[in-house]
Design a protein that fits this description.
Elements lengths: L19 H12 L4 H23 L1 H4 L4 E5 L5 E3 H15 L4 E6 L6 E2 L10 E9 L10 E9 L16 E7 L3 E6 L4 E7 L4 E6 L10 E3 L10 H12 L3 E2 L5 H11 L2 E4 L12 H14 L3 E3 L19 E4 L1 H18 L5
Parallel strand pairs: 3-5, 11-12, 11-13
Antiparallel strand pairs: 1-2, 3-4, 5-6, 6-7, 7-8, 8-9, 9-10, 13-15, 14-15
Helix pairs in contact: 1-2, 2-4, 5-8
The chain binds 2,5-anhydro-1,6-di-O-phosphono-D-glucitol and manganese (II) ion (2 copies).
Length: 345
């Protein structure tokens, strides 16, 4: 009796998904610097923390984790329970990673110098907004996490650096899906969390922002307090048929601008002459990402990334988006500066 033919399952070319982990390892190999390994692990720590935060967000309404905790943070804002949870999860993950020597968080008054595993190579500072868009939490709106990473020389742990010196930056958008967007200085890559495998899988490579958009994103309730140049720009946009979209969470609004083009603004207002957004863990990381995608990030008086920081929680006016839209607004602001004959728009 003939031997039954052995069943040979043809090796099919089913490539494994390109995950965030293997993207980081590939970047580490390409960098070939002794610090890049630590950097991969630090970004990986943020991705792990984001999966925990995403899970806590999904069931916050069932776990009693919505609402404020009765504390006011250094920003003068009511701290939400999920702000605190996200902050604690990120600190716990990051302080255990080799190479992390200092942390700066929107939810903590001062920098946290980490007495962690001795750095084998480069040493890093990680600045983050653990939960961005907190006012959306109780109403089921999109929120995010924003991070910004610098190399730190020994003895300079508490020196704040200009955004131009970042070595990694990104955000996580907790929306209908959980999206991880980051740059290591060689373009912008986008990953979507696949719940089936618990990994972030690449969904976009070398993302490029449209050179011009048809959307502006600003809190129009404040428009009367905006400098004249901003108001003229917005009038021009309306006349040209621009749409207005505003999620109230910087991560959601910037993500839309990154994909669709246009401009996101948080201008100076009567109440907040430097705007509301924080330089170190909102404006700088987002400006670098947008710039890496071919866009621009400006304060109205120059590149966001060139601002020399004075304090951890300082605020700057924010203009982020397509190069042509940002240039048009900056031209209106410069016109005012010129007609006022001073540096103030
Ligand atoms: P956070 O929740 O981290 O304090 O950030 C909220 C920020 C930013 O996400 C958003 O663009 C802006 O606040 C919205 O401010 P307004 O509600 O004043 O428009
Ligand atoms: Mn924020
Ligand atoms: Mn926040």
């Amino acid at each position: 009796m003939a031997e039954p033919a052995s069943v040979v399952v043809p090796l099919r070319n089913r490539p494994a998904p390109q995950t965030l982990q293997n993207h980081l390892l590939a970047a580490e190999r390409a960098a070939r610097t002794d610090g890049s390994r630590s950097l991969s692990w630090i970004v990986s720590a943020i991705s792990s923390a984001s999966k925990v935060i995403a899970a806590r967000l999904r069931t916050a309404g069932l776990d009693g984790n919505l609402g404020a905790v009765g504390e006011v943070n250094v920003q003068g804002e009511d701290q939400q329970a999920l702000d605190v949870i996200a902050d604690e999860v990120l600190i716990q993950e990051l302080q255990a990673r080799e190479g992390v020597v200092v942390l700066g968080s929107e939810e903590n008054d001062d920098l946290i110098v980490v007495d962690g595993p001795p750095a084998q190579g480069c040493r890093y500072a990680v600045l983050f907004d653990p939960l961005d868009g907190s006012s959306n939490l109780d109403v089921g709106g999109s929120v995010g996490t924003i991070f910004s990473i610098y190399e730190v020389a020994p003895g300079e742990e508490t020196n704040l650096q200009a955004g131009r010196r970042q070595v990694a930056a990104g955000y996580v958008l907790y929306g209908p899906s959980t999206i991880f967007v980051m740059t290591l200085g060689d373009g912008v890559d986008m990953f979507v969390l696949d719940p089936a495998i618990g990994n972030y899988v690449r969904a976009g490579e070398k993302v490029r922002i449209p050179r011009r958009g048809k959307i502006y994103s600003v809190n129009e309730a404040n428009v009367e307090g905006f400098p004249a140049g901003y108001r003229r720009f917005l009038d021009n946009c309306r006349r040209q048929g621009y749409g207005s979209r505003y999620a109230g969470a910087m991560v959601a609004d910037v993500h839309r601008v990154l994909l669709k083009g246009g401009v996101f603004l948080y201008p100076p207002t009567a109440l907040a002459p430097n705007g509301k957004l924080r330089l170190m863990y909102e404006a700088n990381p987002m400006a670098w990402l947008v710039e890496q995608a071919g866009g621009r990030g400006d304060t109205g008086s120059g590149d966001i990334l060139d601002v020399e920081p004075g304090s951890l929680h300082e605020r700057v006016p924010v203009i982020l988006g397509s190069p042509q839209d940002v240039a048009a607004l900056c031209a209106e602001i410069a016109r005012d500066r010129h007609s006022n004959g001073n540096g103030n728009a």
